Amino acid sequence: MEIRLAKLSDSKKLADYKNSLLLTCSMISRSEPTSMEAVKKSLKSDRRLILICEHNTAIAGASTIKKRDHKGIISITISPNFQGKGLGKKLLSASMKAARKKFCTKVFISNIYSENTSSIKFFEKNGFLLAGKIPKGFYKNGKYHDKLIYVKVV
Ligand SMILES: CC(C)(COP(=O)(O)OP(=O)(O)OC[C@H]1O[C@@H](n2cnc3c(N)ncnc32)[C@H](O)[C@@H]1OP(=O)(O)O)[C@@H](O)C(=O)NCCC(=O)NCCS
Questions:
Q1: Best mutation site among 87, 111, 118, 138 for ligand 1, i.e. most ligand atoms within 8 A of its Cβ?
Q2: Which domain holds residue 59?
Q3: Is residue 66 part of a domain?
Q4: C-alpha–C-alpha distance, residues 73 and 152, integer Å
Q5: 144 to each of 52, 134, 150, how far by Cα in Å?
Q6: How many whole angstroms from 46 Cα to the centroid of ligand 1?
Q7: Over the stretch 59-87, which tens digit does the pLDDT of each residue have?
C-alpha cells in the first residue's frame, strides 16, 4: 500500500474511484457523479492537495484538502473493502502533514453529514472536536441533513 500525491495522469482512475463510492458508500455527502474534467481541474488547482492510497495500482482511498484562507477543509474516503484497517488514519495524517508543508495550514475542518456515525467516530478518534452544527446544511437524495463541523488545530 502506497500513499502519495495524486498526479494528473491519475485523473481517470480517481474519477472512477469517486464514482464507484456513489454505489458502495451511502454515507458520502456527494450524490452526483464526478467527471474526469472536474478531477483534472482539482488536480491542477494550487489551492487543493489530493492524496491517494494505492493498492496494486488500484485506488483504495483518497483525500482532498481545500485551502480556504488559513484553513484546510478535509474530505477523505477509504474504499469499503479497505475500511477498518488503519488506512484512513494513515491517509489523514499524511494529508495534514502535506498541507502543513504546502499551505502552512494549522486549522483543519471536516464537514460531516450528521448521520455518518463512522466518520464522526473516525474524526473524533483523530482528535477533531465538534465546533458547530448547521441544521439542514446538506441536501442529498431529496432530503436535508444536518451538517456537523469538526475542527482540529495543530
Ligand atoms: C471514515 C473513514 C475515512 C475511516 O477510514 P478507515 O480506514 O475505515 O478508519 P481507520 O481504520 O483508519 O480507523 C481510525 C480510527 O477511527 C475509528 N473508526 C473508524 N471507523 C469507525 C467506526 N465505524 N466506528 C467506530 N470507530 C471507527 C477506528 O476504531 C480507529 O480508532 P483507533 O485509532 O483507536 O484504532 C472510512 O470509513 C470511510 O471512507 N467512510 C465513508 C466515507 C466518509 O464518510 N468519509 C468522510 C467524509 S469527509
A1: 118
A2: 2-110
A3: yes
A4: 11
A5: 30, 11, 19
A6: 28
A7: 999 999 999 999 999 999 999 999 999 99
